[in-house]
Specification:
The structure is a homodimer of 474-residue chains. Chain A is α+β, with helices and mostly antiparallel strands and 474 residues long. Helix content of chain A is 33%, strand content 28%. Chain A has 3 domains: 261 residues, Bira Bifunctional Protein, Domain 2 (BirA Bifunctional Protein, domain 2); 102 residues, Anticodon-binding domain (Rossmann fold, 3-Layer(aba) Sandwich), CATH 3.40.50; 74 residues, Translation Initiation Factor IF3 (2-Layer Sandwich). In chain A, α2 crosses α6.
Chain lengths: 474, 474
């Protein structure tokens, strides 16, 4: 069996090898950065999508789908936004042999597709809030090195867009999105940092941006999502107005919430180990695989294995019977590297004793009686998830360290936390020192116990400092 | 309330008005033929997708997703295929300010995206069959008049692509697809015709094509799907070969199975009536809506309505509580025009008696006791689907008539069935006579009892004739 590169020493090499070994994607498609979702990768993605759908719909958001092509005329309406995306959009210029009168942009994100229609949908205060989301692919002409799930040119994307009565209601929606993401992340067993980006790093056209970041070893971080408050920055150019109860016309305040296939990359990055990928049970393409283990003494365990599979399937679990001709040991290795939470080994001994031998991806073993099979498997999956989450939270806490001087940022091997006064000058000095980015100011408590923030790490000003973080984004 | 155009007299006007009234789509998006999936339309589409996924995965097909952009170099490999699509593809020619070295086609269908990769996936006979499918959007630069769901430029599309050992196995896959579609159609309550297209009307690059057609009034028909046998027509140019057990290299035989959002249009067309859309229960965005009906005598039925909603939701039904301030009558009309299968009226009287008053989209009424609520609602939905299906099957049978001479085809007001010898000359004479299309030869028994086919309707030859159909495709 091939050995993976060391995750700590050579993270990106390890990541690429782990994704490859698990066959989550096929990178041999003849357009750079556009990969094929294999059957196994697609099943993981579908689970991610379902979790996102469930959690966002629980907050009253409704699914929609807007076209993938946006006329140049609409795309150009918000000045900052087009400046931010101009260099990385794909242009459709021809239909058949005809040159299009108005060139079309392949959506890099959907503000400019949705907002002309929102202007028609929103008339009165009774139409608000308008909370809709879509799960679609977006397209960006990346010039940097592409990496499966982390940086690709066709991106599987979740985007919520909302219209609210006023700035305060929009801030409440940001808070609601943060709460919804906390629920998703709990199901992914994924600890993260919610962090308000500095002004120079916010989304093009945003009033402010809250990013969802995870540490991925050393001082490296990965942005896995973002929530933006737009105030009236888009509603003015796109004319999204409503009549308030007194008959006055007002512009809506907008928010957006974006997630992408990077979440799958994050799950690989956080939970994977020397043996490959490890999926949380809620995301795993299969939660359980049943493996018949023939014995030299004879006796075919397959009928019993089938019975086990049927019971689990009817119990609502995602289960697969691996009855290929390969050796059991090769199958164990195969499913481990693909992140399977729980395998059930079923030999003549188990068939005789009416039990199954369970082994989790983290190495925990148990004998589960046939009589209490479904409950036993659920318990084992719960215990596995619990351990996976605890392991991830431990690594998360270890990824951060306090910095008390600019000196300590230099060559830092952890993400650094420090008090910052909020001035761009001090912020830029932080970025120079760590040779990376000021990630921003923390939303909520720091990930390690730190107390109240003291004087700014740069200028020493003591008032109005906020806990902030700096690292080296992937 | 607005009156819809007459469905028999002015089908297309009726169709457009019914779709509009149900708010399934928003046509005001500023690119012709690219429409917005509204929340309500999206929920119907999601149900359609789930039914397709379930039924195709039950036959061993696995989900994948290939990129939306196809390099010109791959697109051009199969000669007939590119000839068939050349006039209607969108071209991506620029990324940012850069002109692309190789222009990219926005997928009109995915043969040319998938098959270079299939050539890598298939090595040995043990890799076969390869049965995969994807649900994605495809793009066609339509020059004809666009119509929501029926003819659009961004098409929500289901496509299965398979590789088989030989021609016979590929024919078996075609039969398996036909069986899978029969199950889908039963859940949509949609009678249809499976018909092998004449050679001059097959899919570009196919060996033969079986279309799935429905009659939509008069002699008009609508193709809602198709299944193709490709033989080695694509596997040769794309090099999809395997080694057989004796070590010889062979080309695979391929099949494809395509369905699209047209299915939603078909459901509107077949089940709709003078009051608008009518959804089968399996597809309906909501199966049940609970409407509180306040009484002049007082007493708030809302808590009881909420209780009813909760029981049904927990029972696994898609249920919605409509507690808007509008009059109950206005809500009844609103949900009828949106095709709701079953509404439950809940007033103080019902709260007192511990019952609900049920009214189906077809006008059937019943009182369901609170004690047997879930079973009673399920029974009412079953009975509604049964009636909807019976009504559709009756109209389906009435849409066909035998033709015994070319004369009878002229100005026909039904789809016509007749024996055909299979010669292109006779086929083209049929097309001239009906001023439409020879749809092809029937797969399976005719939709009305007809016995064995006699002499060819054109040349009078008696041997090897097959029941065939002609009509005017929309």
């Amino acid at each position: 069996m091939p050995e993976l590169p060391d995750k700590r020493e050579a993270f990106i090499d390890w990541y690429l090898a782990a994704v490859e070994l698990a066959e989550l994607t096929d990178k041999r498609y003849p357009v750079k950065g556009m990969n094929v979702w294999t059957p196994y990768g697609f099943l993981a993605r579908r689970r991610l999508d379902r979790v996102m759908e469930e959690e966002i719909e629980a907050t009253g958001s409704r699914p929609v789908e807007f076209p993938a092509l946006i006329p140049e005329t609409e795309f150009a309406k918000e000045k900052e936004h087009i400046k931010g995306f101009d260099a990385q959009v794909y242009w459709v210029t021809k239909g058949g042999a005809t040159t299009l009168d108005v060139p079309l942009v392949l959506r890099p994100t959907s503000e400019t597709a949705m907002y002309p229609i929102f202007a028609l949908w929103v008339r009165s205060h009774q139409d608000l809030p308008l909370n809709v989301y879509q799960v679609v692919n977006t397209f960006r002409y990346e010039t940097k090195t592409t990496r499966p799930f982390l940086r690709v040119r066709e991106i599987h994307f979740f985007e919520e867009h909302t219209c609210q009565l006023d700035e305060e209601r929009a801030s409440e929606r940001v808070a609601s999105n943060l709460a919804a993401f906390a629920k998703m992340a709990a199901r992914f067993q994924l600890p993260y940092l919610a962090i308000r980006r500095p002004d120079w790093d916010k989304f093009p056209g945003a009033f402010y941006s809250v990013a969802l970041d995870i540490p991925v070893g050393g001082a490296r971080t990965l942005q896995i999502g973002s929530i933006h408050h737009y105030r009236e920055n888009f509603s003015r150019p796109y004319g999204i107005q409503y009549e308030d109860p007194t008959g006055r016309s007002k512009f809506v305040h907008q928010t957006t919430f974006g997630l992408s296939e990077r979440l799958l990359g994050a799950i690989v990055a956080v939970h994977g180990d020397a043996r490959g990928v490890a999926f949380p049970a809620d995301i795993a393409p299969y939660q359980v695989v049943v493996i018949p283990v023939p014995s030299a003494k004879g006796g075919d365990p397959t009928p019993y294995a089938r019975e086990i599979e049927k019971v689990l399937r009817e119990g609502g679990l995602r289960v697969h019977l691996d009855d290929r001709a390969d050796r059991p040991g090769a199958k164990y290795y195969y499913w481990e590297s693909r992140g399977l939470p729980l395998r059930l080994e079923v030999g003549p001994r188990e068939a005789e004793a009416k039990t199954v031998s369970a082994a989790s991806r983290l190495g925990d073993k148990a004998t589960i009686p046939r009589a209490g099979l479904l409950a036993g498997v659920r318990t084992a999956l719960g215990a596995y998830d619990e351990r996976l989450g605890a392991q991830a939270r431990k690594a998360f806490a270890e990824a951060f360290a306090l910095a008390t001087s600019l000196e300590e940022l230099k060559g830092s091997t952890t993400v650094r936390l420090f008090p910052w006064c909020g001035s761009p000058e001090c912020g830029h000095r932080v970025e120079e020192a760590i040779d990376g980015a000021l990630l921003g100011t923390l939303e909520g408590a720091p990930p390690i116990p730190l107390g109240a923030p003291g004087a700014c790490i740069v200028c020493g000003r003591a008032e109005s400092t906020v806990w902030s973080a700096a690292g080296r984004p992937l």
